[in-house]
User: Fold these one by one.
Assistant:
Number 1:
Amino acid sequence: MQPTTPGKAGRRRLRHRSQHVDVFDVDGRIRRSDTKDGEFIKTFSPYHLLKEGTTYPPVFFTTSARDDRVHPGRARKMMAKMETMNADVRYYENIERGHGGVANNQQEAHMRALAYTFLWQQLRK
């Protein structure tokens, strides 16, 4: 008898059992015991590479409270860490849609307007 594997939704649940674990295998399942991969990921992780005293360009983070692939806590955590470093950071979290960030054309237009407004403000400096 073949062992059963969780479907797509099951893998997502496994992934989100602990929202801030950085090490996943190819199927997205958490490997809590493999710290070697976790240490490797830290060598290119933007969050782990932030350095106090470094001047960063202005940043605009967007996320969704219902993202089923990347927990919004990651964007929140990155924004909070940059705020403590007095970086110029902005944040917007859509509460109505998942990984794509928008549920309809109106939200798409709103998200694009936010992004283009931020870009325009930075180009005008």
Number 2:
Amino acid sequence: MISEKLKNNLLIKGVLILTIYYLLVSCQQKELADERDGQIYKTVKIGNQVWMAENLNYKTNSGSWCDDNDPRNCEKYGRLYTWDAAMNGSTTEGAQGVCPSGWHIPTLAEFQTLETFVGDQASKLVREDQPATAYTPTNETGFSALFGGSRNITGSRFVELGATAYFWSSTESNSSYANFMYLYYNFSYVNLYRNHKEVGFSVRCIKD
């Protein structure tokens, strides 16, 4: 039998470990003010990279939407962008694209660095309140991914809200396809793949 004193000591140690962890995460988090529209975004340092800890919600003249065309979804999940809109017409890997000054659209290599840092564990990138089934989101990095879904290639419907987080990279696969990272509610690992540039995905900017 474990003594009551030992139980209390273990409990205190557990609380201290959790407190230190959350303090470390909070110390890594800062804020970014987008001077174009005044929106404020949380940012977080993960390893040697500094990421936005929220999806971009900058309205472009064309090529971006709120999921289900509902402005409330933009407030929560940010906007969904075609690759051309995300890149602001550029095809250069690592371009600023639609990101604020001093930030850029992540390259595939930068997503691979993030994937390696978390040991290919989606749980460390997904916010705790997201409805994952293959894992328990811990958001240990503070990346705070949300399952913001996507817009299909024809624009006829929005899909996978509450199931998948998609993020464009600035790395082309070919003239019609580009690479992206996605986190799925039923896959415990980080996914890197490619899709047609006309689909609508979220954008997470990374600091230059």
